[in-house]
Design goal:
Number of domains: 1
Mean pLDDT: 84
Strand content: 5-15%
Number of helices: 3
CATH topology: Arc Repressor Mutant, subunit A
Structural class: alpha+beta
CATH architecture: Orthogonal Bundle
Low-confidence stretches: none
Oligomer: single chain
Shape: elongated
Distance between the termini: 56 Å
Helix content: 25-40%
Length: about 70
């Protein structure tokens, strides 16, 4: 049975962190892999401490190109 939010007490899953920051889960995974944010592997689930959540880099979405 996969872990649920009830038994994750000291941080956020990749999915939760991505949703809270408004980015894709792959972006969070990439930042973990690069060492830009810390995450602890618990079983098969990465847990991101609350203080690390603010470190997740969010780039503005690309909008339509401006014309002159």
């Amino acid at each position: 049975m996969p872990p649920t939010r009830k038994n994750v007490t000291m941080g956020y899953t990749i999915r939760e962190a991505a949703e809270l920051r408004g980015i894709h889960t792959d972006t969070v995974r990439r930042q973990i892999r690069r060492g830009e944010i810390l995450a602890e592997l618990k079983g098969n689930l990465y847990i991101i401490p609350p203080l690390e959540l603010k470190k997740i880099k969010v780039r503005p979405a690309h909008g339509p190109k401006k014309t002159a």
